Amino acid sequence: MKFxxxxxxxxxxxxxxxxxxxxxxxxxxxxxxYSNPKVVVGCVPEWQGRILLCQRxxxxxxxxxxxxxxxxxxxxxxxxGAARETLEESQSQVExxxxxxxxxxxxxxxxxxxxxxxxLDEAHGPTSESSAVRLFAEEEIPWDALAFRxxxxxxxxxxxxxxxxxxxxxxxxxxxxxx
Length: 179
Fold this sequence. Notes:
alpha+beta; Ubiquitin Ligase Nedd4, Chain: W; Nucleoside Triphosphate Pyrophosphohydrolase; 2 helices; about 35% strand
């Protein structure tokens, strides 16, 4: 950041009074500009025991499979964001249920909130973000072709909870280059 979004003056990186981390502070109006992690929301959509996955039509990890997920927008709840991302990436409407996992990824400044999702009907299909969208039985999941470790962790916890009849919440901290 080079300029204040409030007044347009240059900013300087310094530790504001009462803080303990360097922040971009406006040299004119003294506005403090915080840089915080981005929130990614998504879900594991399920239809009659099968899990909906999307094959990525965009980078990063073009061609790999993932759950529908993306950045949360201002003015929406986490559940609303997960439902929106599912519709945008798979043409599927879901009822978003309980959280499965909260994954902290400090190396890329992201926090992922992944929910259970119940598809309202079997409708699904490709989009500009997904070259293919498919329902997978548990034994068909392409584990070696999943896009991100966050997807692997969430799916493993989801499937284990499903086998045990549980709905646990899993807190996962991933280190450098772990997404």
